[in-house]
Amino acid sequence: MDRDQAGPSRPKRACVGKFPNEREIQLLLDSDEEDNLFDFDDSGSECSVGILCDENSSESEDEVEVPNSFDDVSNCVTRPPQIVWQDNPNLQQFPFTKQKQLLVPIPGEGNPYDFFRFLLDDTFLNLLVNETNKYAEYEFLRLAANPRSRISLWKPVTPEEMLTFIGLTIHTGTIQLNRINDYWKKHHLFNLTCFSNYMGRDRYLLIMRNLHFSDNSVDSNDSDRLFKIRPLIDYFNNKMNNVYYPGKELSLDESMVLWRGRLLFRQFIQNKRHKYGIKLYMLTEPNGIIIKFAVYTGASDDLGGKGHAANVVLHLMDEKLNTGHSIFMDNFYNSYDLAQKLLEKNTYCTGTLRANRLNTPKDVVTAKLKVGETVSKYSNNVMIGKWKDKREVTYISSEFENDMVPTTNRKGRETLKPLPIKQYNKFMSVALTTPIGVMKVQKLKVEKKG
Length: 450
Known about the structure:
This protein is an alpha+beta fold.
């Protein structure tokens, strides 16, 4: 095979900077177009000269330089501007233009049930009732020929009955038993009359079987793997966006919903309590209130593929940009490029950073530190630093400078810690700030003292 001929094992590729051959020089001399510097047909050679310069380009002369000779061809390629890192802080400051508040009046008398019905309103409740009855009717027509089938006992569910079903389902999370049937046992060890007094076991299981959120008769979108629960996800996200605005500090992290069954997008995360399950990306307040969430369904969904982590952040923060929020994230999401995108939307970001991320300064990555030492670099309103405690921690912030501030460790001793790390620990420790988390910590302390 001819060396210059393209084939399966030798795909043609454009080489910039190769000295032109005699044929190409002759074409240059014969050309009458002064602006068309290198306009060659590359069909006969594997590599041909190409100038990545457009006569209509808006690039400045500093970024694109037309070569004066063939030796300067390699200098004509447009490259992104180099990031210059420096030691002096140059962070941008902008105010938080919103305030933490309810966007609607307090419902009813302000008791827990009023807030529950405020979030689960009649519109969604009727949707749930209608879709459940519609699916149950389909199953009845399909299986009612068998008199032993439980669906033959179906009666249309009402909104009041659906509320009772939802309440009992929530209560099963408070009183945890091995099986659903155990909640209706008559044995004195299991006799929970709060279930049997409000709904029979067979009726509860029948509603559970036919529970639906979307219309099965409508052709589903093959690209949406969450078609069955998409109305529920959209309802919650829109409801929270319309009734409540959070404070300045927000945290973003992933969570796992336990599931060991067969599912195409089931995930495995080693360091989670529930290692197998459905992965959720959640935007929350430091006290644990969920503002918005998204379900990860694999690399083929709208948030998957290249730039997945940045896509998740921008999607969850879509309604909260340009208001001065501070978002705290771990090293799965953070990068220099994402920090720049958020700054363009007047949004801070702070958190840990993977050292191998693109555009991380080499001086910070390769620095050898002793315990308690820190190093940092600044560029374009972004700070990237590294601090050594028991191990080295790389971090990024567009809000806080790399100042060492006093803090109290777990043993009650006062130590110095970088301000971005202190703020990150403060606003990302959701599990320790919720009431359940505080109870667990107090229980551990009592057990240690005992």
